[in-house]
User: Fold this.
Amino acid sequence: MSALGYGVSDFVGGIASRRVPALRVVLVSYPVAMVLLGLLALGVGGTISPPAIVWGALCGVGQAFGVWWFYAALGARPISV
Assistant:
């Protein structure tokens, strides 16, 4: 399920990056993903510690920059498998 989710999101993000700037795709998709993952985390349960929140936020920002550049590259050239 994880591989399918990554594959579909990368393909859809690349296609969307051809129509609008890649930064706009990331600025729309990341808040939506954050809400969905937050709801999933509440359903699963567990403890939330301040270090986990800090590390999660840092990783999220780093990944957002990587995905922004990745979508920009997908939007610039043809996508192939």
In short: The CA atoms of residues 4 and 10 lie 10 Å apart. The first helix runs from residue 2 to 19. The chain has a mean pLDDT of 86. The chain is about 85% helix and 0% strand.
